[in-house]
Amino acid sequence: MSKPDELLVDVAALVESGRSNQMSLTVVAGGAVITGRLAPEAVWRQRVSEVLADSAHLSDFSAVFTSAPRKDGAPTHLHFHVARILQGTVGIPETGGMYRVAIADVSAWTMGDFSYSEH
């Protein structure tokens, strides 16, 4: 496993502090380009839990996401909401998704999110 980028860990820690959920970020992880906004883990977990609870087939999984996140040490993951995986000129899913990315798996990143074309 690679050593996480300390600057990216600091960005994640600031998001986790709850000061803002407006940080737009684009990362490359496992060859995929993911772009969107970061959220504190607790907010991300709550939203995922709500989406699962509303599903007739997946509601049993909702409770897994309601436990409080661990607060020991520096953040190890980025929690994206309203995010897309960029594939060519298309963003998947169109409406944005909820992604959890290990900071140690990020090979490149930049502030801001990328627009994509639907043409």
Indicate the topology.
Elements (H helix, E strand, L loop, with lengths): L5 H11 L7 E6 L2 E7 L2 H13 L23 E11 L2 E13 L3 E6 L8
Antiparallel strand pairs: 1-2, 1-5, 2-3, 3-4
Low-confidence region ranges? none
Count the beta strands.
Answer: 5
Order of helices and strands: HEEHEEE
* Rg, Å, rounded: 15 Å
Strand order of the largest sheet: 4-3-2-1-5
End-to-end Cα distance: 39 Å
The profile of the biggest β sheet is: 5 strands, antiparallel
What do the pLDDT scores average to? 87
Task: Kindly state the percentage of residues in helix.
Answer: 10-25%
Write down the oligomeric state: single chain
Explain this structure to me?
The structure is a single chain. Helices cover 20% and strands 36% of the residues. A five-stranded antiparallel beta sheet has the order 4-3-2-1-5. A hairpin with a 2-residue loop joins strand 3 (77-87) and strand 4. The protein has 119 residues and is of the alpha+beta class. The model has no long low-confidence stretch (mean pLDDT 87).
